[in-house]
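Feature request, filed as a ticket because there's no other form

It would be nice if the structure record came with a short human-readable summary line next to the tokens. Right now we just get the raw output. Example of a typical job, pasted below so the devs can see what we mean:
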Amino acid sequence: MAKTRRAIQNQTNRTLDRGDLGALLGFAATHSEQSVCRKARAYAGGLPIDIAQAKLDLNGPNAVSETVEDPTVIRFLKCFASPFTLILLALAAISYITNVVLAPSGEQDPTTVIIIAIMVLISGIIDFVQSSRGASAAAALLQMVTATTRVRRRPINFDDSEVSHTEAPHDDSATDSASHAATDSVPHTDTATDRAPHAATGAADTPDADSPFDKEIPFADVVVGDLVLLASGDMVPADCRVLDAKDLFVNETALTGESEPVEKFPTVVHARRRADGTRYPLSLSECTNLLFAGTTVQSGSATAVVVATGDNTYVGRMSALLRQPATKTSFDVGLASVSKVLVVFMLVMCPIVFIVNGTMKGAWLDALLFSVSVAVGITPQMLPVIVTTCLSRGATQMAKQDVVVKTPSAIQNLGAIDILCTDKTGTITADEVILERHLNVLGEEDEYVLRYAFLNSYFQTGLRNLIDSAIINATGQLTDINNLINSYTKVDEVPFDFERRRMSVVVEDVTNNTHMITKGAVEEILAVCTSVNFKTHISPLTNAQRQDILHRVHDLNHEGMRVVAVAQKDNPRPVGEFGVDDEADMTLIGYLAFLDPPKASAAEAIKKLGEKGVCVKVLTGDNEGVAAAVCKKVGITVDALLLGEEVENLSEDALRKRVEQTQLFAKLSPMQKARVVEALRKNSHVVGFMGDGINDAAAMRASDVGISVDTAVDVAKESADIILLQKDLLVLERGVEEGRRTYGNTIKYIKATASSNFGNVLSVMVASILLPFLPMSALQLLLLGLAYTLTCIAIPWDTVDGSFLARPRSWDARSITGFMLWIGPVSSLFDVLTFALMFFVISPAIAGGTWAELAAAGNTTGQALFIAAFQTGWFVESMWTQTFVLHALRTEKLPFIQSRPSAALMILTVAGIAAVSVLPYLPKVSEALGLVGLPMSFFGWLLALMLGYLVLISIVKALYVRRKGSLL
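Raw output as currently delivered:
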């Protein structure tokens, strides 16, 4: 066994056991059975047990590798790794040292540390709860391969020479089928006896070979070279090449999202070649002789040789792609840039405040404490909480609209998208087939054609597909089908096959006359017809009529319809002798046109998305003609079309140019879909991708926000960030609006807080230079920040102007910097006016003299009262200005009049102002905080200042909007 394993390993590079997925499956599809079986090291009677075990030991089980997720503790800790959280933790550490460790005995004050710790903990917990996700995409893939399958094995052993002989390299040429060792003979089985153990049909593998036998084994034990025996209902255990097949139809919905089953054949696929002679990569639809892991046999039977297992399968490679680190989305990049700007602002301004205060006042420890408080004050402490709460609230609202949010940041990304890429089937179309028209040979609606088609579809016993169901349903709407069924008796049938592309049934009517009714591809039906039937009048089929019919069919195809022709023949042959030969000299009755209709809501949704600035592009693996017709019906103007083979040949720069002008991308492979999405993102677009198959997973991964539906395959749902409970673009349109509302509330907090804090820092700088004392104590500054922060908790529930929701919104750090520079100085100007009011009017009135008089008299008590009054006035005024600026900047319109805030925000902000204004009049509280009661005249002055502030801020806001185009 050890020698056998070594011999296999030595030949690995010349086999299909490993290698690039495209090359591996491309070889299997385009080469002869002999070549594929030889390179897979398959044996005519099945793999010997010891060889199979050696392969299993060497290459591992046929299972997709699992995604290794971080432990819960690590994921929890990562929720505290945002820049602001880390800064707040650093400030808490500094505050702990200065306010607790270095503070004199009895004066320790851990308030700052406690407040910061509470904010950080709330933010992290909310983020952890919202970001906890379900099982990984790889785990979903594993669920697809938990069954057993039947393979053919041989109970024999080989020595090294025999293994080496079977694995000798061969030239892949016209001599494929020339003399090879008996072990290289093509595995071939009689499909009629697939399920029964039997001897090999070719030469024995060795002189002493035992008879092969069929064995049921777990999927995990399947190896390359195994002969797999498949029948209706079986799941395909690995990627395989078909060797024998009988009426084999496979459901590939899990891969492609297309509901129509696909017929598979053992014939070689001929690859298309470019002008330079190189081959185009094969698409899934072209691989008609390959079976893919995870798909299901819907009908028929087959023998296939395994060419790829585990991670080397198509599904395995998709899983590996999903396990790669996720691309940073618009939200990730935007929030990081905003955080960087605010962090730099804090790191620059705080040392300046420390140095200026220390130099001017000489009290360096007080200056340090004050600068730490300024750092806490100017840092948007609630940013993590506000962002997370906005996203959480958005997720809750979207859940009410049948949208499940898996990744919180996806909400904002959804609101930011300006391009939505979507698959066609099931998203724009209804993912069903309806009979659109039943036409006679002149192209007129004729129920006579439909009745004959019904008899064919109803009485056939092969695979009843969506077309048959559509015919039966349409007939039931027009006539009593029970009466029709009772008028005929089935006699025989000739099943569908790929070569004929048609199927026939023979029925007997109540007069004992027999009728052969045939339906199938138009060209194939015309080939066996010599006459036409028009309203019971039969006449010869002329060449002119043939061309006229083909022209009408072409027009129907151009409208996105599939066309099937119907023919009949009276009294063909005696019962029991019917066959393919009877499909000749038939009479053409007419043809049927089928359509996968657009959803009723698709056109409206695409129009609404367009009005909101979202361009819809269709990326499909389907035929370009059908896709173009569907696009036209739903209002997508297809000025430019790009096919998968063209995408494959374009350079990155050329593709980036083409994707801008192209609305429809057809015949795309999964990797080509992902490449188109990446090209759009590199052009600075925020891209969403909506799909429901494994073939869409790569594109969803490459987009800013992946969107799927609850009926999608598990891999697509696990790859998605957002899942729609209704497969409807209207639901998505409402989700886009909610995403923009979430972003709007987040950015209004950031801009209002950043500009207000910037104004406060400017005010502190001015006060540090002009005043002989600190304008506010460290504790007061911290308490002010806390009070303002608490009022901001209601922001996630605030209303957002309709004009703001009208176009895509994304993060822009530069706009925040500009906003601070415009708005901050306005706040600072009124702070300086407040300083003047307090220093020259209010404080002298309370303290009994000006600062100079008190200093000259050595009245320290009066000076302390002067400082307390001054700090109280700025403490109250700062809360008022910060609250008013929040209301002024939450809308481009006139606050309270043209745009009203939510009730929650209004109540909290009024409560915040009232609480701060009342604090100086509470004896014990005011004493602890160093505040004093202010005369009522102060509030008269304050109201005047606020009125002027609102007027000036409105003027500056209007100038800013005129120059920048938007406030937020």
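Something like this underneath would help us a lot:
The longest helix spans residues 729-770.
The chain has a mean pLDDT of 77.
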